[in-house]
């Protein structure tokens, strides 16, 4: 399952990231923020309009905004 389809307020573990589908700068930023294989994350909020973009993602004590197109590149499993 990819992160964009994961339920809110449920902890997940990142099992794979399709780095090739992301622009180099975007991939570098996500890695710097801790988005990588093995990290535990949870979706805490989704946008309210039709695309439900962006997602608010919690990694550790940090909350980051992530576009759904980026969330589709992140494969997760329940933690």
UniProtKB/TrEMBL annotation:
Residues in Ferrous iron transporter FeoA-like domain copies: 1-78
Full protein name: Ferrous iron transport protein A
PANTHER family referenced in this protein's UniProt entry, alphabetically: FE(2+) TRANSPORT PROTEIN A (PTHR42954)
InterPro entries found in the cross-reference section: Fe-transptr_FeoA-like, FeoA, FeoA_core_dom, Transcriptional_repressor_C
Domain of life: Bacteria
UniProt lineage: Bacteria, Pseudomonadati, Pseudomonadota, Alphaproteobacteria, Sphingomonadales
Keyword terms, alphabetized: Iron
Keyword Repeat (UniProt): no
Any one Gene Ontology molecular-function term assigned to this protein's record: transition metal ion binding
């Amino acid at each position: 399952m990819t992160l964009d389809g994961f339920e809110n307020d449920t902890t997940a573990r990142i099992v794979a990231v399709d780095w090739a589908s992301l622009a180099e700068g975007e991939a570098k930023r996500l890695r710097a923020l801790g988005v990588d294989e093995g990290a535990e994350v949870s979706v805490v909020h989704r946008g309210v309009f039709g695309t439900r973009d962006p997602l608010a993602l919690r990694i550790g004590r940090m909350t980051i905004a992530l576009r759904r197109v980026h969330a589709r590149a992140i494969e997760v499993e329940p933690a």
